[in-house]
Amino acid sequence: MMMEENLRETLLGGQTFSWREEDDSSFSAVLNEKVYHLRSLEDAASDSFLRSYFDLDYDYAKAAEDIAGKDEVLSQAVRSTGVIRLLKQDHWIAMISFILSQNNNIKRIMGLYDRLSHAYGHEVEPGRFSFPTAEELSKATEDDLRSLGTGFRAPFIIDAVNKAEILEEVESLPFDLALQALQRVKGIGPKVASCILIFSYQRREGFPLDVWMKKVMREYYPDKDPSYFHPYEALSQQYLFSWIRSQDRFSGN
DNA sequence: CACCAGGCCGTGC
DNA sequence: GCACGGCATGGT
Fold it and tell me: pLDDT (tens digit, 0 to 9) for every residue of chain A, 253 residues total?
């Protein structure tokens, strides 16, 4: 079974909030002090940063087939979605992104991401701004952040700026301790911590339970826990998440 | 008007 | 330990 790469789902499906779809259906993002433009995954192969970012050395097509073979629900989820990847994002960007994500929707998270970039990042090309570093974001007060629309997440962002050194500590910690370390930041609980570990530390044993995934588990896996999906916990979760959201035609995202 | 969004915090028991 | 309300903001 040959499955097609679903770059759109990888870039816009909720594991990163850095990418935007252009009118010509290409994708662009400001990363690594540059503006990247992509039409397909092949465009990433010649760039060393993107090769790593898209985890090109991992065989996601084989993983998709393994996952699809696990049970009927996963088979349906994988076949209806196509191959999706787990990105290697910057730790800091992932931490702030998923703090922004709590009790929020993808469209609005992207809007906040852009406003933070414009207000506190730097211009790498006319009109294109990088996501602010921790030092750049340290210039923002809580009121500044609220005025950008972050709402009750503003103090969480301030706390993340002050505890950014945790991101280095996490590198050497096993999964459970890494999960605990990240939760020392206010506004980071189990779900947000799991997303940071999966989408920027390649910790594939993570299995974030958001409102959508709780529904999936309740309806299709009532007597199972995340270890059922081993060794593809994180990737299975991402397929199920994409699938259940695509089922809901009125989810406006 | 209500209810929801890739949740978490503080409180009460 | 677990249940519950509150929370900023914008969309449906």
Answer: 678 999 999 999 999 999 999 999 999 999 999 999 999 999 999 999 999 999 999 999 999 999 999 999 999 999 999 999 999 999 999 999 999 999 999 999 999 999 999 999 999 999 999 999 999 999 999 999 999 999 999 999 999 999 999 999 999 999 999 999 999 999 999 999 999 999 999 999 999 999 999 999 999 999 999 999 999 999 999 999 999 999 875 444 4
Does at least one atom of strand C sit less than 7 Å from the CB of A104?
Answer: yes
Domains identified in chain A, total number: 2
Asked whether residue A14 is assigned to any structural domain, the reply reads yes
Nucleotide closest to residue A250 (CA–C1'): C12
Tell me which residue range forms the domain holding A115. Answer: 91-201
Q: Per CA to C1' distance, which residue is closest to C10?
A: A108
User: Does residue A126 lie within 7 Å of nucleic acid chain C, judged by its CB?
Assistant: no
Could you tell me the distance in Å between the CA of residue A203 and the C1' of nucleotide C3? 31
Here the CATH number for the domain that contains residue A11 is 3.30.310.260
Q: Which of A201, A216, A236 is the last residue of a domain?
A: A201
Rg of the Cα atoms in chain A: 18
Is residue A216 one of the residues assigned to a domain? yes
Contact A210, A195 (CB under 8 A): no
